[in-house]
Design brief:
With 417 residues, the chain is α+β, with helices and mostly antiparallel strands. It folds into three domains: 68-105, no CATH class; 129-181, no CATH class; 206-413, no CATH class. It has helices at residues 6-19, 26-38, 80-85, 165-170, 292-299, 308-320, 323-327, 357-361, 365-376, 407-412, and strands spanning 42-45, 55-58, 61-65, 68-70, 77-79, 89-90, 93-94, 104-105, 108-111, 132-133, 136-137, 142-143, 145-148, 158-161, 176-177, 180-181, 185-189, 195-199, 206-216, 220-222, 233-253, 264-266, 269-270, 273-290, 334-339, 344-349. Strands 1, 19, 20, 21, 22, 23, 24, 25 and 26 form a nine-stranded mixed β-sheet that branches. Strands 9-18-17-10 form a four-stranded antiparallel β-sheet, with no helix packed on it. β25 (334-339) and β26 (344-349) form a beta hairpin. α1 (6-19) packs antiparallel against α2 and α6 (308-320) packs across α9. The longest helix is centred in the first third of the chain and has 14 residues, at 6-19. The chain is elongated, with a radius of gyration of 26 Å. The two termini are 42 Å apart.
Amino acid sequence: MSNLSPLGRKLVNEIRRLASRRRNVYQALMSIANRLESRQGVEIIIPRLIQCEFQSNRGGTTLADLTWFYCRRCGSFINLGEAIRGGHVRNKEVTCPDCGEPVDQAYVYAPFPRSASPHPAGVIVHAFISNSIGSWCRLLRRYKRVKRTDKMRPLASLRYFCPDPREAQQRGCKYLQGNICTDGIVVMRGRGPLRFAPTALTDDITKPLSVAVYEVVGDKKPVKFSPELLPGIEEISLVKSVRVLQVTLCVLVGYPSCPNSFRIHHLFIEDGTIILPSRLLTTSGLVIKVKPEIMEKIEELPGQRRGPMELLHTLSHAFLSRIPILSGLESAEFGEALDIESGEVLIYDNAQGGIGGVEGLVSSRESINSLLMEARTSVECPLECPVACKACLFSDSCNMLNWYLDRHLLKEVMEWD
């Protein structure tokens, strides 16, 4: 650790702290932290060029294969290479080789675990339907077709269709109901408790897990505020020059409706080296410091998931979730970073040099009071959720996927009510 820069030390500490609270990513994050500490087998990169690939393999695992297309009319699948060779691509439009209709991007298979697994059993797998359970007709010796039976439920209603119902009926197929084959389901087998279910290609399949650390390089300008508006806060400072390092540790992959804690982690690995896509920016932000006695008090609370990290992250979201409303800017224009050892949180402009968003929130006494009063309302949830939800504390710009939040800590420890 002695050879690491101050930002490097903070980064390793934050990764280990994050790992200690999440079983499904513990091994992956500890491996990253250990490699960073020894400076071996890991590389922090700042991407300059993003290249899109139809097929991608990383670390010996198929990350994506987007070369398959699907005909909604007849249920046939066609590969892009086969379509080009067969003359089924005209004016950049792929058509079905069986019925001639235009085809769509085929569904992808995403992990649908029954329980969380500490080991990555796979990631997005976009494969030919032959990988699905029961896709091969043993009687006719042909692949079945896949069609939706309800347009209002395009995924849930996917069923196997017999490739030749007349012949199957003549040969006495016991699985034939009309044109539908009842043998098998459109799901892929996986190792352990995993299965892969079909879903449309959306951003919700992958969730990046990131961490941000910071160091102040400019002077702090204290923000004057009334302590009774926000008990437990020792100091709020405007910093016009703060260096922030954002690091993406891995992506969590799963069905769009799958909770983050049940997703499968996927590391970016090249030739045995873990690649950490990163971003380094110098911007402006608000540093909010909690009173030392509050930090001591939180250490004494019972429960593994009610510590300094949960308190500071919840405090950060009390501001982060309200700032877009007050500033009129998108939530993506702001970011957060925690400093557990110092008992501080940083809310910053998520752009090189800053965009004036944070500074505008403390430009006058009225704006400061509005910010503090809005932050204080975060302890009350209109849905009365157990700890946190979209109605009270969640933010789209959270690096840590809205984990480690508990609005009740602000009431019990900070005495916000």
